[in-house]
TrEMBL record:
GO biological process: UDP biosynthetic process
Gene name for this UniProt entry: pyrH_2
Keyword Phosphoprotein: no
Protein name per Swiss-Prot or TrEMBL: UMP kinase
Pfam families xrefs: AA_kinase
GO MF term set: ATP binding; UMP kinase activity
Keyword Ribosomal protein belongs to the record: no
E.C. number: 2.7.4.22
Pathway annotation: Pyrimidine metabolism; CTP biosynthesis via de novo pathway; UDP from UMP (UMPK route): step 1/1
Length: 58
């Protein structure tokens, strides 16, 4: 598979990773799905940088 970009930056919201239904700081199922998608992209020689928001750390 050919991708348009060879390098990408992914910005994730810390709040978007939360599991509000279970009052957890991190939704581990969501993070696992995201990691599996990243594996596919990285195996296809795309360089990935990830920034996770930290607005709730103060």
């Amino acid at each position: 598979m050919s991708y348009k970009y060879k390098r990408v930056l992914i910005k994730l919201s810390g709040e978007g990773l939360a599991n509000k239904e279970k009052s957890l700081a991190i939704d581990y199922e969501l993070v696992n799905k995201f990691a599996k998608q990243l594996q596919i992209i990285i195996k296809n020689k795309v360089e990935v940088a990830i920034v996770v928001g930290g607005g709730n750390f103060w």
